[in-house]
């Protein structure tokens, strides 16, 4: 398979789920180029020492926008964004902008664990 570039993002209440997801699928993720927002990337790297992840800024400080810009530039092949729908987020406009660009550029976007499991399964082999 071509070397895909994936973006990994999780709201605070979903970071445990994201770290667990990445650990479960570490072998599938390893060959890919991985980007993550700052805190999410740190949590995944703690849990998955074999993964090499480029950490961008934290979401509220512009990380979501950085990933959005990469999507607009055609540099991201799929987005895994574990969203917490039950908490307010100070950077909600950035969250919406990120999702919007993933829609505009029609990249696969998993917003919850159930979809992420199906999307990652499509990357096997
Ligand atoms: O805020 C985020 C998504 O909107 C994620 O940012 P962090 O990974 O830095 O917490």
UniProtKB/TrEMBL annotation:
Residues in MGS-like domain copies: 1-125
Alphabetical list of Gene3D superfamilies matching this protein: Methylglyoxal synthase-like domain
Q: Which InterPro entries match?
A: Methylgl_synth (IPR004363), Methylglyoxal_synth_AS (IPR018148), MGS-like_dom (IPR011607), MGS-like_dom_sf (IPR036914)
Q: Which molecular-function annotation in GO is an example for this chain?
A: methylglyoxal synthase activity
Keyword Methyltransferase attached: no
Q: So where does substrate get bound? A: 11, 15, 37-40, 58-59, 91
Record Pfam families = MGS
EC number, as in UniProt: 4.2.3.3
Which UniProt keywords are listed? Lyase
Residues annotated as the enzyme's active site: 64
Record's superkingdom?
Bacteria
**GO cellular component terms listed in the entry, alphabetical order:** cytosol
What processes does the entry annotate via GO biological process terms?
A: methylglyoxal biosynthetic process
**What catalytic activity does the UniProt entry give for this protein?**
dihydroxyacetone phosphate = methylglyoxal + phosphate
Biological role stated in the UniProt entry? Catalyzes the formation of methylglyoxal from dihydroxyacetone phosphate.
Q: Which family does it belong to?
A: Belongs to the methylglyoxal synthase family.
- Recorded protein name is Methylglyoxal synthase
**Organism field:** Microvirga alba
Q: What is the lineage of its organism?
A: Bacteria, Pseudomonadati, Pseudomonadota, Alphaproteobacteria, Hyphomicrobiales
């Amino acid at each position: 398979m071509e070397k895909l570039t994936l973006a990994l993002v999780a709201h605070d209440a979903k970071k445990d789920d994201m770290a667990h997801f990445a650990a479960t699928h570490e072998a599938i993720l390893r060959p890919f180029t991985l980007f993550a927002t700052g805190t999410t990337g740190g949590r995944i790297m703690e849990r998955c020492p074999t993964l090499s992840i480029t950490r961008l800024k934290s979401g509220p400080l512009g990380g979501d926008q950085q990933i959005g810009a990469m999507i607009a530039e055609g540099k991201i092949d799929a987005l895994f964004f574990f969203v917490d729908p039950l908490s307010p987020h100070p950077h909600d406009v950035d969250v919406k902008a990120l999702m919007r660009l993933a829609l505009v550029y029609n990249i696969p976007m998993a917003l919850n664990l159930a979809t992420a499991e199906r999307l990652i399964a499509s990357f096997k082999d």
